[in-house]
Amino acid sequence: MSREKWRLNPLVAVLAALAALFFIFPLIGLVTGAPWGHITSVITSQTALQALELSIIASLSSTAIALAFGFPLAWLLARGHFPGRGLLRGLTTLPMVLPPVVGGIALLLAYGRRGFIGRPLESATGITLPFSLAGVVVAESFVAMPFFVITVESGLRSMNRRLEDAARSLGASRRTVFLRVTLPLIWPSLAAGLVLTWARALGEFGATITFAGNLPGVTQTMPLAIYISQSSNMTDEAIALSLILVLVSLVVMVFRRDRSGAQ
Amino acid sequence: MLHADIQLQLSRLSLDVAFSVGAGEVLALLGPNASGKSTTLRALVGLLPLDGGRVVLDGTVLEDPAERVKVAPEKRPIALMFQDYLLFPHMSAVENVAFGLRCRGTDKKTAREKASQVLARLDLEAVADARPGSMSGGQQQRVAMARALVTDPKLLLLDEPLAALDVSIKTNVRRLLREVLRQSRAANILVTHDLLDAVALGDRMIVIEAGAVVQTGTPAEVTARPRSSYVADLTGVNLLRGTGHGTVLELDGGGRLTCASPAAGPTFAVVAPAAVSVSRERPEGPEGGEVNTWRGRVSAVDLMGDRVRVRVDGTPAITAEVPPAAVDRLQLDEGGDLWVCLSPAAITTYPQ
Q1: Phi-psi domain of B149 (left: phi exceeds 0; alpha: psi -120 through 50; beta: other)
Q2: Which CATH number fits domain B2-226: 3.30.420.40, 3.40.50.300, 1.10.540.10, 3.40.190.10?
Q3: Residues near A257 by Cβ (< 8 Å), separated by ≥ 6?
Q4: Alpha-carbon span B133 to B137, nearest angstrom
Q5: Chain B contact for A168, CB < 8 A?
Q6: B96 near B132, Cβ under 8 Å?
Q7: CATH code for the part of the protein at B236-351
Q8: SS3 of B48, please?
Q9: Would you place residue A190 in the very low, low, confident or very high pLDDT band (cuts 50, 70, 90)?
Q10: Scanning every residue of chain B, which has its alpha carbon at the shortest distance from the alpha carbon of A181?
Q11: Best residue in A162, A164, A170 to probe B by mutation, most B CBs within 10 Å?
Q12: Of A74, A129, A194, B212, which one has the fewest beta carbons inside 10 Å?
């Protein structure tokens, strides 16, 4: 079957071009506005390096937490049969649509020093979450994990479960079925979920600043550092730090496109 | 040797069937859609737990709910070839075939070698390293067959193995399958809704409808004396039910037939469509007149090969087979009424 000759509708072309430019112009702005003359000194400043390090540690930790706890949750939502499953899905994926600052306040009320979990936690173990690196990870997990849960759940739902039956009939234990059949088949969703979650965690601002504060070297991640630079008229630093985040995100997106394109 | 007594209550089906299959024997399991054929196979494999009954294979109890015995699916020496093959899309043909061996403890190298041998036997060397997505339907079918055969199962279950194939290659694959089954030392069950598959491949046949066995026997016995309209439709004969009073058969839906041989009690009567004669005028002569002559309305005319089948709705309704020339002569395309006439010798009766 040969497809009909592809013809470009002018209206579609113009609208699509406008949409593309809408995204491209801000990037051009970042690149042209960057303080290229002294960019190395800005990027290697202690504030910048500390923020970058914190961002990477916190976002990777949140992604690991999403994998460890979000996967079982996605499994339960996709495969479980129990009353209230829809409600559970709604509650656990609510942070996707919730304004992050609201999430931060909610986190304070639960896990803050006076929160109904935070207070007994502190008196029992001495651990306090707010205004610590652990607090940053909690805030980022709260906002980012739902993306992982929902992506993996839809991957589990769309796979042909009868392939698991086939594997069992061929002598595979439940463990082997999971490792050799289920996992490879949902791998694209799993990878997409990890990337989305990590990107969301990397960019997290509202919940982090509300729950973990803005302590340089402790809880000040890249987005926070950028915001502070911008609002204290250190525009050059803000732009340089932004460029770093753009670069990191771009590398991941391109890498991911290549991988999924090869499948 | 398999002894199976399967009782299962599902939302849309209540299944209660019992049968045995010897080693090396092929049991063809025939039935209409949703009659419980695939469900029976899933139960044998252990993917659907039984509510009652017992499954024993070569003296080992695989499942017996009353005794709380249930061997896990992966521990049963059974292979199931699925109707839609269910090949693993992320594995090559040889990996698909080696999968079962690997799961049952064969080392990687030996498993690959054995898998390659079976693939070669089924003429699949060329696609050994290809993934299912890039194979033809016929190749996928044979890879699925190889995957089922390679573990040397004691019970081989084939769920509609030829149903998804192109008509053009069906005959060849059926021949290949017959060869494979002939060499098999397993108990074999072939699920099909194609009578030709059942006759060509089955040593014995079991017909199930709505979750219950309606007939068992050799393919010849079942086709010669159908006991359900499902089988009668497959073989293309008229099946009538009635009560015998000597040579007269009072039909269940009204009407009566005079038969050559006497019968008593609930009786089946089979009439080949070719033995039914039809005419526009009331038939005359020694055979016409009173005996087995009735009038009905033409409800369908179908061309079947070089014969034409005419459905006549009367008491009883019956299908006649006439040469194509008769369509013109009798003006069948105009519908209307026809006289049906049937020789008593053309009616075969047997008890219900």
Answers
A1: alpha
A2: 3.40.50.300
A3: none
A4: 10
A5: yes
A6: yes
A7: 2.40.50.100
A8: coil
A9: very high
A10: B88
A11: A170
A12: B212
pLDDT at B67 over 50: yes
Express each pLDDT in A96-144 by its tens digit: 999 999 999 999 999 999 999 999 999 999 888 999 999 999 999 999 9
Q: In this structure, are strands B52-57 and B78-81 parallel, antiparallel, or unpaired?
A: unpaired
Q: Does B147 touch chain A (CB under 8 A)?
A: yes
pLDDT of residue A258: 57
Residue A244 C-alpha, separation from nearest chain B C-alpha, in angstroms: 37
A160, A172, A180 ranked by CB distance to B74: nearest: A172
pLDDT digits (tens, 9 = 90+) for A197-208: 999 999 999 999
Candidates B251, B335, B341, B339; CA nearest to B296 is B339
Tokens of A4: 């009909």
**Contact A19/A162 with Cβ under 8 angstroms?**
no
| Cβ–Cβ gap A163/B47 under 8 Å | no
Residue of B nearest to A187 (CA): B90
Residue type, A28: I
CA distance to partner chain A, nearest, from residue B133 (Å): 12
Question: What pLDDT is recorded for position A261?
Answer: 44
Residue numbers in A near B151 (CB within 8 A)? 170-171
List of domains in chain A = 37-262 (1.10.3720.10)
Please state, in angstroms and as integers, the Cα–Cα distance from residue B143 to each residue in B113, B189, B292, following that order. 15, 19, 55
- What is the pLDDT at residue A2? 54
**pLDDT for the residue numbered A40:** 86
> Band of the pLDDT at A178, cuts 50, 70, 90?
very high
Q: How many contacts does A have with B, using Cβ atoms within 8 A?
A: 51
Distance in angstroms (rounded) separating the CA atoms of residues A122 and B239: 83
Q: Where are the domains of chain B?
A: 2-226, 236-351
B133-161 mean pLDDT: 93
